[in-house]
């Protein structure tokens, strides 16, 4: 008997396992969403010898993105002989900076050699240094933390909200003290932090906000682009990112004086007039990185919209499915860059550890992972800086002891070790809708046969 009018999620949440077995007479049962519901009797888990939902292999086009426009842009730059941004004010890097600022929605942009360099440039440009503290997320690439350490400031880690994987504003506020100079929120997976709360806290305590939007180009929140809400925003163009050139980064902002300071810092301390004005490393983006990025501009918006359409489809299909809930978005989230598509795994619903689920769904041809496998707050860098003479000189013994004790971040621990499931979205979310259906089918097939996974 057909279950007309039932979506996959409603079907799974209201019909018992026995009813599924007896009610479906064909390998697939139609659902209201148009996606087939797998019949357990005809779909043995691939992990146990059954046929997989799809052949193994990547979903979506190869990444990073390459087409003839990208190749032609690199060839043009190679033949020009202008390989460093200081050779020409009209080279690919200055052209990219102007184009990227317009794309993101700011007045100014400064290219750098990486996203980490962009963040480091901002920390230094804002005058944050020895004795100062910056509050940020423990669930990020280490480059976020490294950018603070480079200026010999103290990166203070605050715990997360368990279903958004973003900084918990309440935890941020608890960690503010007289030495706190800035908050560095990380828009993890290219989806917005609770910027409404974070900006309110920053205003209340007179703190600067450096947005780590490295994973979030073009994503929007409450009418603004991510990276444009704080004092400055930073982006990464590392090879896995939604906009990629191997390595590369950018700072964006609307404060002309601050952005000129960012330019000076990344130009090893030399300002736009050529005067050696301050302390700074050489973080300049090179012309080849700019060329690769400029070659991608014609399709950037279209690829962004495709990712969002596919992510919205997956979110719709998994809505109400308690066993694997899509990353929760804050009110006002309009779109995401979807560097990763994140989901929260509920062991009680599945009856097995996350690792078992990941093996089972991979056997169905859909590779999911747990994103960051390590707990940054338990990595060796913590003891390393606490043992440095410089940090012992800048911070009191009681503050360093308190800092060490503050590395108890239970929500982050659980996300990393137990609940986070995701897949990289830069290329995968450019696949056709049939592949999105395969992702859902693989998840649901494993769920319907989850009792077979228990040993």
Describe this structure in words.
The protein is of the alpha/beta class and 455 residues long. The protein has one domain (63-455): 3-Layer(aba) Sandwich (Aspartate Aminotransferase, domain 2), CATH 3.40.640.10. It has helices spanning 8-14, 17-23, 68-80, 92-104, 115-125, 142-149, 169-174, 195-205, 256-266, 287-318, 347-350, 354-363, 381-386, 389-394, 397-405, 410-419, 425-428, 433-448; strands at residues 28-29, 37-38, 108-112, 133-136, 154-157, 180-184, 208-212, 220-221, 224-225, 232-236, 249-253, 324-326, 333-335, 340-345, 420-424. The strands form four sheets. A seven-stranded mixed beta sheet has the order 3-11-10-7-6-4-5, sandwiched between helices. It has a three-stranded antiparallel beta sheet with strand order 9-8-13, with no helix packed on it. The protein has a three-stranded antiparallel beta sheet with strand order 12-14-15. Mean pLDDT is 92; it is low at 1-6 and 9-42.
* Total separate domains: 1
Number of H- or I-type helical stretches: 18
Instruction: Give the terminus-to-terminus CA distance.
Output: 33 Å
Shape: globular
The strand line-up of the biggest sheet is 3-11-10-7-6-4-5
- Unreliable stretches (pLDDT < 50, length at least 5) are 1-6, 9-42
Tell me about the largest β-sheet.
7 strands, mixed
Beta-strand percent range? 5-15%
**How many strands appear in the DSSP assignment?**
15
- Helix-strand category: alpha/beta
- Give the helix proportion (percent range): 40-55%
Radius of gyration from the alpha-carbon trace, in angstroms: 24 Å
CATH architecture descriptor? 3-Layer(aba) Sandwich
What is the overall pLDDT average?
92
Q: CATH topology, what is it called? A: Aspartate Aminotransferase, domain 2
Supply the CATH superfamily name.
Answer: Type I PLP-dependent aspartate aminotransferase-like (Major domain)
Name of the level-1 CATH class: Alpha Beta
